[in-house]
Amino acid sequence: MLLNWQYLIAEINFKHKQCQDDPMNAMAFAYSLGQLLLETQALFSPAEWQSWFKKNCHFSESCAETYLQIAKSWPSFRTQLDPYRKMDLSAMENIPQMSLISSKSKDSFEEDVETEVKQIIPLLSNAENFPTSLPDSEKSENATIINFYLPGKVVPKARPRVTTNGTYLPPRYRAWRNQAEVEIYRQVSDLNLEVNLPIQRAAISISFCGKHRTNSDLDNLAGACLDALTLNGAGVLQDDRLSCIPKLNLEYIPNTKETGVKIRIEILPVR
In whole numbers, what is the pLDDT of the chain averaged over residues? Predict the structure, then answer.
């Protein structure tokens, strides 16, 4: 498998830092990291894994084992390594919105990510971001409806940065996505769903409540939420194509006490 190892290594250490810096959500972040470690470990022999881990991971083997055990005890909704696959740059010629930037060395790449992480963590660790909240599901006469709530401001969807080593998302957006995904994981685990994930077809309603950035493009805000729900995110939805989401409602409700986003998923029959 062709992987962007620089991005993968930086992300593993980034997720470990989130576990340390955000105790309220540490268990959910530990699951996300543990699942990523499980899939990475499967690519190596035991001896190769030990050598690779010691060289690249900034935490102890006993700590890694704890992450692995947590991941084994939770359900898995998607393949964690998919976002780290390298992109064939020859296919990018007709996509001008993704600008090509120069490749960096491993040390330079991780140094830049670490610098941005230090700037991001204080913004994401305040009390309004992702406290435990309970979702709910309901059944109407003809449909199952699932409701999620993500507290805090949504970071608009960002364009991937493309290098000769592969693609990666800007750290600020990636940090929000990580928190959004683990919050969705946690809320899914609280539900006793009678449907199989990922959902193949659904009508989605997204309500942005409170003090979001009003100069943000609505499609980028909605895109961030949908990406967090699909197979490249928490794995609740199959994808965000029209065949999967034939109906999408968006609204902004500024005059609320709390800032967050409400997501209502109505499961539709597959045609």
Answer: 76
Give the pLDDT band (50/70/90) at residue 217: confident
CB of 143 closer than 8 Å to CB of 195: no
Task: Report how far residue 156's alpha carbon sits from residue 45's, in angstroms, rounded to the nearest whole number.
Answer: 40
Structural Rg of the chain based on CA atoms: 19
Q: What tens digit of pLDDT does each residue of 31-43 get?
A: 888 888 988 998 8
Question: How many Cα atoms occupy the beta-carbon half-sphere of 82 within 13 Å?
Answer: 10
72, pLDDT greater than 50: yes
* Cβ pair 176, 226 in contact under 8 A: no
Give the pair of three-digit tokens for residue 226: 């949908």
Q: What angle do CA 254, 260, 265 make, to 5 degrees?
A: 105
Those residues whose C-beta lies under 8 Å from the C-beta of residue 261, and which sit 6 or more positions away, are: 149, 150, 154, 206, 207, 208, 209, 225
- Global model pTM greater than 0.70: no
What is d(CA 202, CA 262) in angstroms, rounded to the nearest whole number? Answer: 16
